[in-house]
């Protein structure tokens, strides 16, 4: 009987993302995905209020050649011990702004934030993941986390987490992985105090790999991930705060929840619902891909992605880490590997050159813009009054007040939730809800001026409007500024 050659199965024609993506999207378009991600970030306005006090702390750290150890900003806490949370990240960002202003800072921050996604994507590509699979992973993960992107030290956390996952994906010699991973973990905790996420990831992967080794002793002993998990535990305390970092982190989380900071609240919290839909859609797509291609899945990567998804459900701030963690999951599930190898230099250039062009041209064509919710115009007007002392503002305004007027200005509150006690935050709530009158606020802080969101702090703003002792000098976009009426004050 004559042998008959059976037709080979063409996997590219199978239904689903695996089939239509490479055929429907030209290669040159795929290479533009990283540049498009960067452009999307650079087109956004600067909106995060906390980056302002972080930059000022960073400037102080640079001037003092080390962390700032005593409170410089809060009027009722001047000189008290100050935790060194993210001190290295603040110093680096402050140095970048001093070097090139807000435009250079936002490019630098965007490259760090995206660097975490790109690093693990590049590792997947070098280990054989097809280009279209990696780009699909970048698009979906970027869509999940895009709304959380802002200029702040958390961008360093995304970069470090992506580099850590990339190290694991590259499957280097254990000794080399440990040598590269140890300083990464140490830097991470000082750039942003979230290395515990890396500890959890390496711990989960190590636990699963140890189970596999116990069943099949021929497998390689998972030394690298085990060592990195242990080194990460040590790195958690390798900061100027030492073991007190646990109490500081707990205090920050407690105060954040009490003040209803949306990123610390569950995904179903009303303020998070708009972003929840995006996370759920991406999560369902990832689940569908994994279920269709279970044989390609890596148990360790899945465990990390699932754990971070559950954390995201409980607190939206973890969505950034979850988004980085799903990059290798999607890249594996989207297509069969092509085999590990070196990506041709011309293909690398096709990706890198557009990124560099966007980084260079976007700040020129679209200079830094600030969200109208930031009271920068109001503070500029207040500066012309030449006031000195405590500026009482809504706590989100504390950062811009610090960056604009310190050392002439101090604040009553700002966005450092760990800085103020529970009683102080309750007192703030009493002011905002009208239980604490203007006379008590004046007695407590002796403010030189008020900068308020008249809608958010309506009771206090209303009292100031009726008081003959205070003069309104600014009212625009819901922000009002009051200074003492010197004639009335002396009456």
List keywords for this structure.
disordered N terminus; 491 residues; 21 helices
Structure description:
Helix 5 runs parallel beside helix 7 (154-170) and helix 6 (131-145) packs antiparallel against helix 14. The protein has helices at residues 17-24, 27-31, 33-42, 50-64, 87-126, 131-145, 154-170, 174-191, 195-215, 223-235, 245-258, 273-292, 299-314, 319-334, 345-365, 376-383, 398-405, 422-432, 438-445, 458-466, 486-489, and strands spanning 389-393, 409-411, 449-453, 470-476, 479-484. The radius of gyration is 26 Å and the shape is elongated. Residues 1-20 have low confidence and may be disordered. It has 21 helices and five strands. By secondary structure, it is mainly alpha-helical.
Outline the secondary-structure elements.
Layout: H1 17-24, H2 27-31, H3 33-42, H4 50-64, H5 87-126, H6 131-145, H7 154-170, H8 174-191, H9 195-215, H10 223-235, H11 245-258, H12 273-292, H13 299-314, H14 319-334, H15 345-365, H16 376-383, E1 389-393, H17 398-405, E2 409-411, H18 422-432, H19 438-445, E3 449-453, H20 458-466, E4 470-476, E5 479-484, H21 486-489
Helix content: 55-70%
Alpha carbon gyration radius? 26 Å
Helix run count: 21
Q: List unreliable stretches of 5+ residues.
A: 1-20
Total beta strand runs: 5
Number of domains: 2
DSSP strand (E) fraction?
A: 5-15%
- Give the mean pLDDT: 90
Q: What is the terminal-to-terminal distance?
A: 116 Å
Major sheet details: 5 strands, mixed
Q: Structural class of the helix and strand makeup?
A: mainly alpha
Which assembly state applies to the chains in this document?
single chain
